[in-house]
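Human: You know discrete backbone vocabularies at least as well as I do. Show me how you would write down a chain together with its backbone fold. No explanation is needed for now; the record alone will do.

Assistant:
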Amino acid sequence: MKNIISFFAVLMLFSCGSKKQIITTNSSSKSFELVNPALPGDNPDPSIIRVGNVYYATSTTNEWAPYFTIYKSTDLKNWKLVNHVFPEGFKDMKDQWGENNFWASELAYDKKQNKIYAYYTAHNRFTKGNPGLQCGTAWIDASKIETGKFTDNGPVIIEDDCGAIDAFEMEDNGKIYAFWKNDGNGCGKESWIWMQEINESRTKLLGTKKKVYTNSQPWETALVEGACFFKFGDYIYSLYAVGGCCDARCNYKTGIARTKSLESGVWEKYPQNPIMVSNEKWRCPGHGTVITTEEGRLFMLYHAFNMDYDVYVGREGVIEELVAGEDGWPILRNNITANRPKSELDFSDDFRKDQKLNLAWQWPSKKERPELNFKNGLELKASNENHNLGTFLGQYIKSVDFTVNTSVQITDAETGIALGGAIYKSTWPGELGGIGVSVSKSGIKIFNNLENSYQVVKQMDKNFSGEVELKMNVLEKAKTLEFYYKEKNGDWVKIDSVSFNPDKYAPWGMGYRIGIVSKGENSTSIFNSFEVKNN
């Protein structure tokens, strides 16, 4: 017990950012019940900072816009989506340089400047091949993080050897260092964690880059990535991930290493690595950040797949307290429970009252935000894009058993709801497809374009007018989909029940989306409301 308390005293001397970590527990402090997932839904590679008594977190958005979430919390339990680094997607980026692969956003707070910096990965559309993966930086005044726009500096870390990903920042001895991974496993070469000094505006690397470490222990696979760095006692520690991160074949694990000097280049890896592995509740944990509270307690925010949901929901943000082991190394207990009430995962949007688009809505990353406006509801311009799926606005699913309901006004457009995934056998990044139900003046269709062509699964010819409600029940871990409609003052009518294979269309690195669709030419859909209830 005395050892734990003494380690807590040491921890109070520093704050840290990292992507996987360990926290000391003060036995005299009041208990702190964690609620997980901290960031429900598809929130991989999370990063967290503290500004005074407020916490901000970000996560990967992958092939969806807006790019890079900004969440806010004052208690590490309740999180609210308040902004995005790039709210309008590529239009907010310098020279619109980012094409896809919007990965691994990392926040850093510069107290002296009162600025928040975001490091992030994207594929540069002006280059070809894997070296096109580069790390950019953007910044915003800390007072404007919830309502303002980041200013993009464009690519800053450009790695010729297979591209650069997973940037991280740490200050030491008055210098600011940037760390990153060369994505060697993406082109048949070694993967290393690298470091180099960066200037105060985070626009230019200084001096010469240096190797930090690579995979060298028997348990490690062909790569190291997602590294974070923090000070603990007499050492600088680094947490890192190895293995496959992002789909049903994942085998992600987390290790830890330490050094007494960044400049020495001498790193010692923990003999008892890995310190975090899959368990009966969470699968493939890794790539996160550590934060120190005002009271000196350490918490790590990282991602993992919920075992109950397979990979369909995506990698969720999980928070855990770090503890000091008897041997002095920081360790994780690796025993977090998914205890967030299902009711907190529900979502509702009354488009007739809310005259702006909720921040939860997303659209495919290579496209501009769909044309829309608010009048008597959400008016969404129809199209035949997304392989004839139509215009799609979606958001994370947060479980695999839920009900979706929407109220629409009948127009010429095929207006409805869809469960979105990746079209089968499409090239990376997977083209958007979906399965769902739509209604127009001439009838109702259950549709599916996940096989790369738009197919009508069931059609009901009927003249509709006024308001109609549509409902989709997602059951049996997304293996059964039920579709219903209801006219005003009427009862629910079942259209059909469809078997679904979620394994086949699960997008690499991403969870499914549920959302609204508007299909047609020279027409507009009108949505009154949208609601998701998790069972």
Summary: Residues 2-11 form the longest helix (10 residues). The chain is about 5% helix and 45% strand.
